[in-house]
Amino acid sequence: MASPGTASAGAVAGTAAITRPGTLTALNSGGSETTYGVQLPAGASCSGDTAHQGYRVDSYLVPKGVSPASVNFKTGVPTKWYGYIAYGEYFGAINTAQGSGLIVGLAPQFTWTRLTTKELFPHGQKSSTWEGGIACATVDGVVTNYWNSPIVFTATASDPHGFTWRVVAQPSLAPSHSYMWIGIGLILLSILLATLAVFLSQRRSKPSSSGPAPGGSSPPGGPPTTGGPATPAEAVADGDVVTTGVAAGQDAPEPSVAGR
Hints:
about 260 residues; seven-stranded mixed β-sheet; two-stranded antiparallel ribbon; extended
């Protein structure tokens, strides 16, 4: 980490995305009263933290071609030009996470309503490009890191505050690696649960191997019987009457009684 009060070989530049508040959906344009969010790259952090080295997080808005590092934030507000507005006031002098210097606590939404056409178009032009973003500053207000968004403001009489805006270029808003691995884990878990459900379903529907053999039964105290039709020899017992097979339309033969 760099020592407080000095920038480490120049400020390190990055890009920030302008989003719909509370989402990862890019917001490319809007009017003066359109609220927006700011999304930094995953793991964005300052070169030091607030608790031990006095680093703080600020916002800026400078004309195109001006480096945010040319602005000082020692007093908690930029010495030149403007910044982002949240909670009704300038957004800045925010603490980092302790130890890591991670940027935490960005406002859920920002607004341009505090800006005027005189500030945005100082020479009476109809359009102007500004560089807006989030910066890390040392205890002496020196910028060490910043994340930038180029924004074009256009004068228009149809807007309540006289201007609209659009983002010149947006960085990719792909999910961070941690979210990607969480998604892969959830997919694998779903596959495992589906496989287990199929296995249990097959076990429940499998027929039991116990019970009597197909086509036969074992009466109590007697020999097993087969499932086919009885033969004449089996049917004649103790005076039972036996009839032989008769073709359709023929008279049945006279029954014989066993033992006659």
